[in-house]
Recover the amino acids of this structure.
């Protein structure tokens, strides 16, 4: 019997379902009132897992969801603080952030995301880059970078303009405005929305249909379509570099302090660029 390819993961849980559907759950051990956040371990695992899924012969489709009261809660504040303070940590997390985006894009298996509650940060990368993104109507999709005081890197530049157009992308990314699941479907940011009670049943219905389809036809169609994302790679690389440059600047420290104090940030001064 082959070794479990996911046995070393600690922040992610996995469940196998019929027809080769793999359920990936972010926030291992989170209770129903909690919200999974990306600490050092989870950020690394979320970047690496797509390579293991790609090589997993038993998996034909993936459903990714969050444990607890939401899909994902963004970066753990201690991780953000470590990135601001330590060049080595910042460089490592930059590489993980790059790998997360490209590994999701290059994973040959079709991915279905099921987003409920808040969807922020590293989890949102997989949520919006998934091949089929499904959100509860009441979900709240937030790209929180500018609120933190850094450029909107991660997945934003590579996929938001393609999904919802430049005008909407700039509005939500520059202002850090939340997008409800219903509005996200209306502007094309997600594939479809459903009532929260129907979210997981619909996600597994879609994943099961993908898993029972022609693997070559579906995977090769995904590969061809994702060349649109690969062509945006230079824009993504630039946005990620600017984001991580921001982690060495003063604004991120005010952003962090304001989040800890639960107040609005006060970003004074002007940008050097």
């Amino acid at each position: 019997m082959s070794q479990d390819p996911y046995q070393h993961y600690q922040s992610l849980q996995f469940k196998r379902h019929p027809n080769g559907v793999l359920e990936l759950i972010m926030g291992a051990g989170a209770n129903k009132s909690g919200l999974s956040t990306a600490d050092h371990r989870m950020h690394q695992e979320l970047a690496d897992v797509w390579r293991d899924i790609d090589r997993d012969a038993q998996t034909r489709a993936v459903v990714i969801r969050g444990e607890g009261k939401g899909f994902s809660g963004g970066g753990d504040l201690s991780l953000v603080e470590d990135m601001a303070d330590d060049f080595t940590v910042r460089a490592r997390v930059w590489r993980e952030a790059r790998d997360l985006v490209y590994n999701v894009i290059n994973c040959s298996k079709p991915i279905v995301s099921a987003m409920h509650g808040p969807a922020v940060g590293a989890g949102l990368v997989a949520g919006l880059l998934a091949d089929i993104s499904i959100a509860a109507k009441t979900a709240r999709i937030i790209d929180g970078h500018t609120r933190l005081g850094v450029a909107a890197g991660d997945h934003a530049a590579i996929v938001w303009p393609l999904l919802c157009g430049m005008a909407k992308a700039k509005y939500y990314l520059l202002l850090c405005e939340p997008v409800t699941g219903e509005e996200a479907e209306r502007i094309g940011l997600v594939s479809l929305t459903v009532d929260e009670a129907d979210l997981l049943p619909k996600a597994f219905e879609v994943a099961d249909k993908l898993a029972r389809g022609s693997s070559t036809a579906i995977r090769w169609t995904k590969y061809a379509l994702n060349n649109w994302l690969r062509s945006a790679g230079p824009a993504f690389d630039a946005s990620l570099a600017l984001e991580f440059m921001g982690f060495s600047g003063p604004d991120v420290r005010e952003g962090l302090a304001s989040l800890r104090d639960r107040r609005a940030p006060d970003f004074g001064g002007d940008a050097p660029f």
